[in-house]
Design goal:
145 residues; single chain; mainly alpha; elongated
């Protein structure tokens, strides 16, 4: 039960942070224009990456551990969904991150605006997937699944 609760906590924190970024921070960043958005992206990314990576690893591992100790399949599915965001981030999002963090990127270029928009769409995938994982764990814990 403790492992499930830790998985639920990590998944909920990840999903909440991802949703905040998708619904609040990224739109506000874009509203300020590409030059300011790119200036804010670097510090925000560095701080968020550490937090979200830790939560993804912790939530995935505790969900899988709970499943190995007898928790039902929805717990495993939720953990694997959250864990899947790690390779998704490294394979799909990281190239965009690297380009956005490149000091040679012209903040006023159309490429910068396109990269920022692409990043927002890619990050939204993380919000949805982590939200589904959190929902699965929450429904299981409430006895509705």
């Amino acid at each position: 039960m403790i492992l499930e609760l830790v998985a639920l906590l990590c998944t909920g924190l990840f999903a909440g942070a991802a949703l905040y970024v998708s619904l609040v921070e990224q739109p506000a960043r874009l509203e300020c224009g590409p030059a300011l958005a790119i200036a804010e992206f670097g510090p925000s990314y560095r701080r968020g990456a550490v937090m979200q990576a830790s939560l993804a690893v912790g939530g995935c591992l505790t969900a899988v551990a709970a499943w190995t100790q007898g928790s039902p399949t929805p717990v495993l599915i939720a953990g694997l969904l959250l864990g899947s965001l790690i390779p998704f981030t490294l394979i799909v999002i990281l190239p965009t991150n690297k380009r956005l963090l490149d000091p040679g990127l012209d903040p006023g270029s159309p490429e910068t605006a396109a990269l920022l928009a692409r990043w927002g769409r890619l990050h939204a995938v993380r919000s949805v997937v982590s939200g589904v994982a959190f929902l699965l764990l929450g429904l299981h814990r409430s006895g509705n699944l």
